[in-house]
# Entry
Amino acid sequence: MRRDDLPYALPEPGAPVRVAFVGQRTYFEPCALSAPAGGLIPSFIDYRGGSETGPLHDALRRCAPHVVVVFRPDALPAGALDGVDAPVLGVLTEPLPRSDREPHPNYDYNLAELGRIDPGNVDRVIGFDPYGWDAAAELLPMWRCLPLPVDDRLYRTPRPSHRPPRVIFIGHSTMHREESLLGLKHEFDVRHYAHALMGAELCDTLGTADAGIALHGERWLYSFES
# Structure
């Protein structure tokens, strides 16, 4: 396709690309680029769902993105991105059912939530979980499947671990998580951050730890944990 035939305006050749990441900051800010890199100029728009989209549109007008990336596009009401002159890439973040996957209420709930999506809000969709591809493809223009990204600023140069190692778990409290961590907390110094960590506080907390624990919110969930 020729450049002039594309449905959206593109930056001039060699000019930076403005990317707007949209999603609930508590969960998805660590998945979005926070500083210019590789010819991209990012901005993050905190959107928690609901029918009020005026602030979202105001923020999009201010940053005038060439591309919009939406985490959990099923949280957008129908027609929420009408009039946005940029391609919209949706990113699915919740595991979905599959015929050869053990059933779980969370899978069914996630699929019901996804069933409410307006396909007109997205041009293409990335899934994070290949096991949910078939279920999602029945509803959305699936493009590819990739793990959720991690912002560059959350990485650091490897260094020797403390002795004993400092271990953390970051995630809201559930019965399964509490039961799974209880024995470890009695034997080791495991710090559990159940509240939201964002921005500099998250970077500082990760900087004090040597290892992190990944633990699903519910038992028997089969998923690529974020």
